[in-house]
Specification:
- 4 copies of one chain form a homotetramer.
- By secondary structure, chain A is an alpha/beta fold.
- The first copy, chain A, folds into 2 domains: 2-63, Phospho-2-dehydro-3-deoxyheptonate aldolase, domain 1 (Alpha-Beta Plaits), CATH 3.30.70.1140; 83-337, TIM Barrel.
- Helix content of chain A is 34%, strand content 17%.
- The first copy, chain A, is built from 11 helices and 15 strands.
- In chain A, strand 11 (204-207), helix 7 (214-226) and strand 12 (232-236) form a beta-alpha-beta unit.
- Chain A starts with a strand and ends in a 9-residue tail after the last strand.
- Chains in contact: A-B, A-C, A-D, B-C, B-D, C-D.
- Chain B binds chain C through residues 211, 213-215, 239, 241-246, 249-257, 260, 273-274, 278-279, 282-283, 285-291, 325, 328-329, 331-333, and chain C through 211, 213-215, 239, 241-246, 249-257, 260, 273-274, 278-279, 282-283, 285-291, 325, 328-329, 331-333.
């Protein structure tokens, strides 16, 4: 931690800062000589000290040198983490494609979609049973009936399934049916939910909050890791900016940044990041080119009739087309599309 | 709803759009004559139709004419809503000042603060028992013990109390102790929590999500109103922008915008909107000048030692100073500081 | 300057950083002992060294301790600067109201507006002769004819006039007619223009770039100051954020921040910051409550027929109403509306 | 244009809107029947009418149906435009790589870089002679001496050269030396400069303003096209968002959006979009995967010693590595790296 004093600070103010640091059991250091006075603190800081120092008189700014997350950092864990979602490895050589409808609407829709995306090369099935909706008047998902359908269709097509959990009290129920729990963008900083999901041992797909920076995202992952759940996959899904032609701005920068700062795998969701189906393929390809370990793509048999997020869903045909473009691109990056293996559950 | 077709759309595509609208039981209208073809839909739209139309071929854009919220809108409810928090009226002539520490740390701290802010003119006491913290390593509040202290000190100083509730399963517990429930910025779109709080009949302080626009905020209020809880107070607390000298950018524009679009009262939280104590007074005054119905201000006996958000807390002395500046300013706007009345509980 | 090394940096990398600093004639300091290695540089850094250090191997981050602007900083010049615009003092006790039409359209429009705003209490007349327009198909101003009209009406009504200059080659011409030169938001980082305006000795109204932070704004002011023109008035006019109900988000935070960091006066332009006439009065009041030294307000005899920015212009009646609200508010802040004095030109 | 009236508007207000439209020589249309009253205007609108209508009483919102740009739109010009920069075609099958130092520092630096980037596969040489710098104390380029060096080295290595022009009065001079004129991000809305560059017949590289949306960018291109210069190449270089780990956020969404809305070619500048050399290769690859027609990459013999933007420059070795990754990726997208041809000047 570095404390930068105001140019006009007094000797007393410097001493007070140094004392406050030593009261906390740390070592304060005040360099002699000209220029701006800087107090460097050697040692591990604890929560709140930064704030305390920043409000002392004469202090201009306090800078944290250490990253505030530990378990999520690459410094702590230099090797890439690979998360197994059932028999699919995320974070290794293979690009994992997770596909399916935004919301589970019924058996026919889900089964047809699952078969189509599997045939085209997807490895994991997605589908929402609990949907966060900006308006209380919109379709909010089938709930447990949706979970049951999802598990059944996953079994039938031999694909692991991922679905969103929105409330702490639903975690056990959703975990019964799903192979991976999704924490949605709006809940990335729902710490009670993070704690609860962290207590399971299920893989977690942690979407980035639409106004959260990478550090806050990794801190949300830290909540899961601290609870003992180290099977965390990050998912970039677009951030909120002034540009509003598309629904969000896909932050492709975040992909190599996450790989540099953290060992956790990261995938990309071009469907939510753009909100328009015709932007999904170019952004999907871009994400993989930048190093994403996988994709989360919305597919619907008839997007015109979808109960949620129709305009961003690919038709079966467009999804096949995307997969045919993705294959050579992955190879150009020395990767390949992850291959679906026979599903062997205990 | 207005559907704008692409310039090169075919007659068939127009017919398909019109048919889709009439299948939904609404009336489609296709004006004759040159220019861009526009299909105006007369009647009440239903969830999902917009999305369905937007994904039809030949469609460029679908524009909603009606606002997506109803109960929160001024069109639905032209008069200002006044919310009674115990015996304090929010949304009327009086400017309500809610003050107290960020987190409840102990009895002494809380009681001293409550007495100081009451003496200076505050009417409602705030204090966090459950704290959302970006990092899992920071102080997360005293929990129920904090609630108890808050209720006790509120009773002792005859001030109604407000505190944050973070999890749906805590709503009943928090409602036992608090006179008003606060939904924090990070939970503004936690719809399960909104549903649950909407089912109580307690006043709710709904903070704006830091990346949510006014429409999304009013839709979050709509979640509460739809459940039958119409005692909603909005709280502007700064939005996230590229400017990072202060923690957030206080969106003062939002105050008159909310007054225009909605009948709900709106207050401002300059402490979180700035993150720096020396910016709190000017922003507090600005918010009231722009029409805010009240303020939420953090005050701490010794901000240097605060366990949370020290640098943004006012000392007792600075709070008194702010109140002395606020009084003439409120009068200049033909308002006054709400006067604390003797608290009469049944 | 502080150089933060990566946790896994080598001793060689540290030495290379230290050598690079000493090559530049500065003093490097490497604290002994545990924790993150930090090299503090004592002395005045020079342009480019930061970038050079940041690209060395083993370096994680370079932090500048000193502010990059000097002449604009309060540390360099602790007293508030007062800028005289003809006989009107900006930055002192008086709140200076600058008002007039967005664009000069003709003599009748301008004279009527000037008389109306003067009668209501404005002290300086504004009007655009050169208009930056997002589209090449919009009205771009009357050019020199507009300048002539402005000067003539300013003379007639005894008000100093301010108008925008957009091109370096127009500076001399505009300076012949105007009492103050305005640099618009889109040109805040047009450094050739800044240099040229800095060479005049005219007061300058420097609007904030809509995506520029306070530091970049003060650096733009520094361009003017370095050329010897110290008559700089800053003008907050809204920044670009994700919220798009209003045209921009007025950054009221910036007002006290500028007062803290700089000695230059700052005024606010609620017309461009909101783009909607009905938001102008509350934001104008908020800006003054937060400490603004003045206002820039668009007024038009018939906003429905205005050639530019009609929806944000106040009618004469609404301007009078605003002034009647501003007066008591200024007094509540121990200020007053600057009083127009008889104009005495040499 | 569509005028949406307030729900409580009067019949008189509707008539006034309709009359105002017909006064302008257009046709107003008021649908009968329930719901929100909508006035659709058939015909070509003219500048300012929208604003005029929006300020009429009873009007809630005015929506433009037609895009405000014409010459830049794909509707106007359905085929892709290919811009020849000397003998290099931008916008066709080939991915054009423009590379070189941020600033021209001297002959040795420039020649070495030109030879290295050409050997690795770049086709166009970049180098700044006039540098826009946020601070007046930083290196601002060699000026005409830099232009001369650039032209000389371009001739020697047989590469066309591109360089930034910052001031209208420099356009002729820069055009004498350069094969393509660059308009920088900070000058995207410097309309005087756009006019002047539009009057030349040189290819123009128009960088996106860091807070400008795609529509404003295409309107800036329209300024050039309206002047008769149709040789415009757009360049995405990152936008300003709340995320500040990297210098900007590369808006990859913008690439397919521009291809949909416009016929102009678009390239990407990952160096400025990230500000960190290690993020340049993944973002370069992502941009091409998303459909970019080329890249603008900063390369420096010794980034540690660069006078400007060192941390974002690639070394020769890293540039070669990028090119070796780019080749297979371009092929996977059915494109190839544009091949340098012998330069044949008339």
């Amino acid at each position: 931690m570095i404390v930068i004093m105001r140019i006009d600070c007094s000797q007393d103010e410097i001493s007070r800062v140094a004392n406050r640091i030593e009261d906390a059991g740390l070592k304060a250091y005040v360099p002699n000589g000209g220029g701006r006075i800087v107090v460097a603190v050697v040692g591990q800081s604890f929560p709140g000290l930064r704030d305390a120092l920043e409000s002392l008189p004469g202090v201009e700014q306090v800078i944290l040198v250490s990253k505030p997350y530990k378990l999520a950092s690459r410094e702590f864990h230099p090797q890439d983490t690979i998360v197994d979602v059932d028999d699919v490895a995320v974070g290794g050589e293979g690009i994992v494609v997770i596909a399916g409808p935004c919301a589970v609407e019924g058996e026919e829709q889900l089964l047809a979609t699952a078969q189509a995306v599997k045939a085209a090369g997807a490895t994991v099935l997605r589908g929402g049973a609990y949907k966060p909706r900006t308006s209380p008047y919109e379709f909010r998902g089938l709930g447990e009936a949706g979970l049951r359908l999802l598990a059944q269709v996953g079994e039938e097509t031999q694909m692991p399934v991922v679905t969103e959990v929105m409330a702490p009290e639903d975690v056990d129920l959703v975990a019964q049916y799903a192979d991976m729990l999704q924490i949605g963008s709006r809940n990335m900083q729902n710490y009670v939910l993070l704690d609860e999901v962290g207590r399971t041992r299920k893989p977690v797909l942690l979407k980035r909050g639409m106004a959260c920076n990478v550090q806050e995202w990794l801190l949300a992952a830290e909540y899961l890791l601290v609870q003992g759940n180290d099977r965390v996959i990050l998912c970039e899904r677009g951030i909120r900016t002034f540009e509003n032609y598309a629904r969000n701005t896909m932050d492709i920068n975040a992909i190599p940044i996450v790989h540099r700062l953290s060992h956790l795998p990261i995938i990309a969701d071009p469907s939510h990041a753009t909100g328009k189906w015709y932007l999904v393929p170019p952004l999907a390809l871009a994400a993989v080119a930048a190093g994403a370990d996988g994709l989360l793509v919305e597919v619907h048999p008839d997007p015109d009739l979808a109960l949620a997020d129709g305009p961003q869903s690919l038709t079966f045909e467009n999804f096949r087309l995307l997969m045919s473009q993705l294959r050579p691109l992955a190879e150009a990056r020395n990767r390949k599309i992850a291959i679906p293996r026979a599903r062997v559950k205990p």
